[in-house]
Amino acid sequence: xxxxxxxxxxxxxxxxxxxxxxxxxxxxxxxxxxxxxxxxxxxxxxxxxxxxxxxxxxxxxxxxxxxxxxxxxxxxxxxxxxxxxxxxxxxxxxxxxxxxxxxxxxxxxxxxxxxxxxxxxxxxxxxxxxxxxxxxxxxxxxxxxxxxxxxxxxxxxxxxxxxxxxxxxxxxxxxxxxxxxxxxxxxxxxxxxxxxxxxxxxxxxxxxxxxxxxxxxxxxxxxxxxxxxxxxxxxxxxxxxxxxxxxxxxxxxxxxxxxxxxxxxxxxxxxxxxxxxxxxxxxxxxxxxxxxxxxxxxxxxxxxxxxxxxxxxxxxxxxxxxxxxxxxxxxxxxxxxxxxxxxxxxxxxxxxxxxxxxxxxxxxxxxxxxxxxxxxxxxxxxxxxxxxxxxxxxxxxxxxxxxxxxxxxxxxxxxxxxxxxxxxxxxxxxxxxxxxxxxxxxxxxxxxxxxxxxxxxxxxxxxxxxxxxxxxxxxxxxxxxxxxx
Length: 485
Fold this sequence. Notes:
Layout: H1 2-33, H2 40-58, E1 66-72, H3 90-97, E2 100-102, E3 105-106, H4 112-121, H5 125-128, H6 140-147, H7 161-167, E4 171-177, E5 195-199, E6 210-212, E7 215-218, H8 227-241, E8 247-252, H9 273-295, E9 302-308, H10 330-333, E10 337-340, E11 349-351, E12 355-356, H11 360-368, H12 384-389, E13 398-402, E14 405-411, E15 414-417, E16 420-423, E17 435-438, E18 441-444, H13 460-479
Parallel strand pairs: 1-8, 1-9, 2-11, 3-12, 4-5, 4-8
Antiparallel strand pairs: 2-10, 5-6, 6-7, 9-10, 13-14, 14-15, 15-18, 16-17
Helix pairs in contact: 1-6, 2-7, 8-9
């Protein structure tokens, strides 16, 4: 009896070992054969669309602003004085007072890579295929993504904001964090930026080096106390060199993402610790860019946008909203959005319309006189009328993803969550957070901004209407994942 049991157990062990060896072999085979290939038909259409956009933009006669987009990394809604925070941010607060604040602005995703993909393309990250965070080539997670057949860079058949504005005659620069792939054909200069200075990844990833176009100018490990001043100087230098033509400068800071590094001049001065020091550096950086525009006589004709890629992570304030970075609750996506254009926007407006990072693409193209590409779905809405005079936006759904999974949909004041796993680590004593299925939920964000009280049984019609929008969206993505037309 014991011998028979031993033989059975031995056989099971051999089967398990064989399965493990087969799994490793299959993974190695997939890794060796991995190649991310972009759609050749889409690439051909893209070339034609950019040529058509350039031809049409040349005929535009309306005044067009220069554009500076300042993107912070993991800055929370409650981290600026202008958005109800306690930190000292005088230059960003002044930018808000001189421009427009969107109170209900949500980043395209609660993590960095898909959020940047959505902002630069005007499309929900699921359409770009880059709905997850990418890692340096050769990193263990990068290898695992390749084994699974996931993309590791933004497909080059996407049309970026830089490519569209360059078609409209703008000089373009990307300064700071890229995080959309570290190799051709998806580097900044492959995707519409004339000039690039910065790092390919988050500042907690290695190797973390600084590049200027195609050359490493500061090898790993970079002294991160110098990052914010270096990015600021590079942005000012590009503006000075291109003062006599229209320009688009995308300044994507690495901070306040961890690890936190303040400049020596600021270190230890904030009552909020090193996080406050880092935010003070970012505020000062913004002021130096604004001062350069003023000194060059470009302030009135330049649209400056300051926002964040997602909500705060381990530190920072979501201003009482539920959730943080990674989570599809409002605290993970609702971030500051400040926009100043003295020649086009009235000062001091605070607007409550629900808006999204995917709206920046169509908004900036419209202001620049560049038509939208016709060969693909653009999910954003032109906010020009809203920003210039508070014009009402049409009702539309905003979608909240966690990687490729649709978690929630918002229309107006209502937000519906699908049934999903919610992390719960308390009292378990485990080193990880198990997921417990919860929901579905319906929250009234006008009365319940911190998403605390489910009212789906009280509002069955609204709950069903938002559920219908989720199903329609899933069906659309399922039938045409990339949104080609």
